[in-house]
């Protein structure tokens, strides 16, 4: 196992002394009245809060080894000076690492180095050295994926801080607020924020339900920042409805008319009435018991951040319709930020007209969330709304066209063939959960659903006005907040192009931007053993939302990437893309750096017999295996590079330039990049190391400790990138060109961005094919394709 910590703030000795005194681990006179061993023992006993007697203290010290042969008690009795070996042998045990399993008791320093735990070593230990090393120890992560201070927090060490006056909170340690807020006294309240739209055509401005969980201290004058998660799922989903209207993808691609214009999506009323204000209240009239929560938010809540959830328009107990990523949906979430900042009104309920203000909020808002949640954080950020100081967008869509379409093709998010914007709108239209409300809005919603089904245009797959309204990239220059992006390099749901385009756009902005790339698919990473992600966010939000001068921007890396070869290894970079590129040429089923003189055309047939076709439609994973093994080119063309002499790091967006002809007047080309080589690779999904093993606070919230591990079995290949394009959209996704049967055309196809290490001995492989059974339409047409290799290139960005 390897520890990777990026949230430890550098501090001087005086700060360490002051902070240890502030959390009551150190008394002012102890630096001058105690010996180093006595001081060390005092600190040890104070973090072992389970003991309440001298006998139990002695028993605990006697259970820990100070040397391979002596317990702490026995070692202290010999009056030996402190050594590096003694300090860190005890430290490893306190951090829950196990002798003989995780480290050798005969070589604790080697164990610290092997696990990558931070250390301060000294030749002759003084009291100041004890203080500095113990301070660092409190910030060091344990075997169970939390730093020692957080582990002590989960054991109840800081419950005494609950009773501190509001004026003395939050309590900071190492640049981050500690858990000094009592979760048993959290205030849970509901308000209804008024928007500037009427998306359900009832003549009144839509109200949006907002659920808030905040510390009781905010009723005693403390103003706290808000961490807001915009989640259209939180009020429930219509999974069965979504299944019923999922689109049939077993249909052929068709020839496009270059002059075809797709329908516009429905317009919403421009005039409506605002709600009448009939009074004002300091307290909400409605509460809630629980709501689906992101465990990072749970972690932050006891550290003084108010946690806010809203599902937006078209959800249970809110007004409006579900519009799937539209400007209206964005504005409904923006309205919540405006209310938190003090720029918009909200009501205690839906009908009384009693206004309520967020008097408890300091006006600073951060947004968190994965997938649709992170997407809306990105969308709200592009409005430039005042008060939004930072977002953490995880696996977020930056352009909905890149989610449901690609280069003129209808495209499925990985694992969801047949889903589209209308399907997702139906699934998240949770007003159905209130039967009477749904009956009143049913006809209006059905009409709107027909409108967006037409406007999304599955007929052509072209980029149009519907998708333009859901593309946030053109508005990136409006972003005023700082942005942290988190994305999986193997996320075939929200594909990496979404984060790469956002990241690239932000590099020209004055805002601080951070990027974390992991080896997962569509997942959260806040419960990984190898990475202090929650602490990183706490440090970052302390700076952005509490306005604490903790140098978070300088401490946190600009680009952090999880290695795809070595488990539990994270590396820092200054940017995503490499500084160089390598051009490879296609020849005789090979990839070569030498440009060929003349190469025969390569042909493959996209049609399958009925049995194979239906089997692959039912089990797309079987098609994917067959594609990798189709080396004789029955339905694909394979080009394989020579085995590498040394590791090769691919960084950025690969581009395929290909000359191709279809035997029909329409067609598509798909491509996959493959890391070909026998190896034990990382697991596809994180492995649960300890169910509910990560305690987020004292008697408040747990998460499963997870980590990627090497697979037990060897595999021969791994797909690392892919791309697809309609041959009639060879110039751009909104422009349709004509295509004649057997006409060779030149196509430039950007593939999904990569950050991948090809190991020495492995080979880079390019597979060119047509139908992608996992993502594209699957018409099984009798179409053959020809590739002219001498006019093809694969451009690979690298170090």
From TrEMBL:
Gene Ontology molecular-function annotations: dipeptidyl-peptidase activity
UniProt keyword annotations, A-Z: Aminopeptidase, Hydrolase, Protease, Serine protease
Catalytic reactions on record: Hydrolyzes Xaa-Pro-|- bonds to release unblocked, N-terminal dipeptides from substrates including Ala-Pro-|-p-nitroanilide and (sequentially) Tyr-Pro-|-Phe-Pro-|-Gly-Pro-|-Ile
InterPro entries, per database record: AB_hydrolase_fold, Galactose-bd-like_sf, Pept_S15_Xpro, PepX_N_dom, PepX_N_dom_sf, Xaa-Pro-like_dom, Xaa-Pro_dipept_C
Signal peptide, first to last residue: none
Protein task: Removes N-terminal dipeptides sequentially from polypeptides having unsubstituted N-termini provided that the penultimate residue is proline.
Name this polypeptide is given: Xaa-Pro dipeptidyl-peptidase
Organism, scientific name: Limosilactobacillus coleohominis
């Amino acid at each position: 196992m390897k520890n990777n910590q990026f949230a430890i703030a550098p501090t001087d000795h005086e700060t360490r002394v002051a902070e240890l005194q502030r959390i009551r681990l150190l008394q002012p006179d102890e630096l001058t009245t105690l010996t180093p061993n006595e001081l060390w023992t005092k600190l040890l006993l104070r973090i072992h809060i389970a003991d309440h007697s001298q006998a139990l203290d002695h028993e605990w010290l006697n259970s820990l080894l100070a040397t391979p042969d002596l317990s702490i008690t026995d070692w202290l009795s010999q009056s030996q000076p402190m050594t590096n070996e003694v300090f860190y042998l005890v430290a490893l045990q306190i951090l829950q690492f196990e002798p003989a399993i995780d480290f050798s008791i005969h070589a604790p320093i080697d164990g610290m180095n092997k696990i990558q735990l931070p250390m301060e070593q000294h030749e002759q230990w003084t009291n100041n050295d004890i203080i500095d090393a113990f301070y660092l120890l409190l910030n060091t992560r344990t075997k169970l994926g939390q730093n020692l201070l957080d582990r002590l927090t989960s054991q109840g060490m800081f419950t005494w801080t609950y009773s501190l006056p509001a004026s003395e909170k939050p309590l900071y340690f190492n640049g981050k607020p500690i858990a000094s807020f009592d979760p048993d006294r959290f205030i849970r309240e509901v308000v209804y924020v008024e928007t500037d739209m009427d998306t359900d055509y009832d003549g009144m401005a839509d109200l949006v339900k907002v659920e808030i969980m905040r510390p009781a201290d905010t009723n005693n004058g403390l103003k706290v920042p808000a961490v807001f998660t915009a989640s259209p799922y939180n009020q429930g989903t219509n999974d069965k409805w979504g299944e019923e209207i999922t689109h049939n993808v077993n249909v052929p691609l068709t020839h496009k008319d270059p002059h075809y214009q797709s329908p516009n999506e429905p317009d919403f009323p421009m005039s409506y009435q605002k709600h009448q204000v009939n009074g004002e209240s300091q307290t909400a009239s409605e509460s809630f018991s629980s709501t689906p929560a992101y465990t990072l938010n749970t972690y932050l809540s006891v550290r003084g951040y108010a946690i806010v959830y809203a599902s937006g328009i078209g959800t249970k107990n809110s007004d409006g319709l579900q519009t799937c990523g539209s400007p209206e949906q964005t504005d409904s979430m923006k309205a919540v930020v405006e209310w938190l900042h003090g720029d918009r009104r909200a009501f205690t309920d839906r009908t009384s007209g009693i206004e309520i203000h967020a008097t408890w909020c300091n006006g600073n808002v951060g947004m968190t969330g994965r997938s649709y949640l992170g997407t809306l954080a990105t969308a709200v950020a592009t409005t430039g709304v005042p008060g939004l100081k930072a977002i953490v967008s995880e696996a977020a869509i930056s352009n909905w066209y890149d989610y449901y379409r690609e280069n003129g093709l209808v495209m499925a998010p990985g694992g969801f063939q047949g889903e589209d914007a209308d399907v997702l709108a139906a699934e998240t239209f949770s007003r159905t959960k209130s039967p009477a409300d749904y009956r009143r809005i049913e006809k209006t919603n059905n009409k709107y659903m027909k409108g967006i089904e037409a406007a999304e245009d599955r007929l052509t797959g072209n980029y149009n006005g519907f998708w333009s309204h859901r593309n946030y990239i053109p508005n990136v220059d409006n972003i005023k907040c700082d942005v942290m992006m988190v994305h999986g390099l193997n996320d075939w749901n929200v594909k990496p192009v979404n984060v790469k385009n956002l990241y690239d756009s932000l590099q020209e902005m004055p805002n601080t931007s951070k990027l974390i790339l992991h080896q997962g698919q569509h997942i959260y990473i806040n419960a990984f053993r190898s990475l202090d992600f929650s602490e990183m966010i706490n440090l970052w939000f302390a700076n952005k939302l509490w306005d604490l001068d903790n140098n978070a921007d300088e401490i946190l890396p600009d680009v952090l990437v999880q290695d795809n070869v070595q488990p539990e290894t994270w590396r820092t970079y200054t940017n995503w893309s490499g500084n160089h590129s390598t051009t490879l040429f296609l020849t005789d089923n090979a990839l070569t750096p030498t440009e060929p003189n003349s190469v025969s055309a390569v042909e493959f047939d996209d049609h399958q017999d009925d049995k194979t076709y239906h089997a692959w439609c039912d089990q797309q994973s079987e098609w994917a295996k067959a594609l990798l093994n189709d080396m004789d080119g029955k339905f694909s063309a394979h080009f394989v590079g020579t085995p590498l002499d040394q590791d090769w790091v691919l960084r950025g967006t690969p581009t395929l330039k290909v000359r191709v002809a279809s035997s029909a007047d329409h067609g598509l080309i798909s491509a996959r990049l493959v890391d070909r080589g026998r190896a034990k690779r990382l697991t596809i999904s994180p492995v649960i190391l300890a169910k509910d093993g990560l305690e987020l606070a004292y008697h408040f919230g747990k998460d499963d400790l997870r980590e990627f591990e090497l697979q037990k079995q060897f595999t021969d290949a791994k797909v690392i990138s892919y791309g697809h394009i309609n041959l009639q959209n060879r110039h751009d996704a909104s422009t349709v060109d004509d295509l004649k049967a057997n006409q060779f055309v030149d196509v430039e196809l950007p593939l999904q961005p990569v950050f991948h290490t090809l190991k020495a001995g492995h080979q880079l492989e390019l597979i060119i094919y047509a139908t992608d059974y996992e993502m594209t339409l699957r018409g099984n047409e009798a179409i053959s394709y020809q590739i002219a290799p001498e006019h093809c290139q694969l451009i690979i960005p690298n170090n």
